[in-house]
Automatic annotation (TrEMBL):
Keywords (A to Z) from UniProt: Lyase, Metal-binding
PANTHER family: FERROCHELATASE CHE1, SIROHYDROCHLORIN FERROCHELATASE, CHLOROPLASTIC
Record Gene3D superfamilies: 3.40.50.1400
Name of the protein: Cobalamin biosynthesis protein CbiX
Single annotated GO MF: lyase activity
Cited Pfam families: CbiX
Amino acid sequence: MKKNTALILFAHGARDPRWAAPFQRLQKMTQENLPDTRVELAFLEFMTPNLTDLVAQLVADGCDKVIVSPIFLGQGGHVLRDLPVMVDALRLNYPDLELRQLEAAGEDPAVLQAIRDYCIRSLSI
C-alpha cells in the first residue's frame, strides 16, 4: 500500500507577505516535480499556516507520512531548538504518523553550490 506522503517546506515567515513569494515559487516548482506527493508551506511565525495546524490538516486529509524540510540556510536556533520541539510534540499527538525532519536546506552541498554559482554569475552581470 502506497503511503499518502506530504513534504512540508518549513520557512521562518515575515510580516511582509511579499517575503513569501520565493517560497511559494519553490513550493510550486517542487509540486510540479512530485505529482504523487502533497507539497505544502508552513511557517514558524508571522505567516500561516504554522506547522502544527498544517500537520493536523494533513493527518485529517489522510496523510500517514510527513517530511519536514527546513528552508533555512543554516542549522541555527530555530532549526536546532525550536523545530525539534515542535516535531516531538507532533509525534506525541500523532503516534501513527511517520514524521521526519531534514537538516536545513543550506547544509546540503548542492544548495551551497547553487548559491556559489549564483554569486559567481553575478560578477559577469
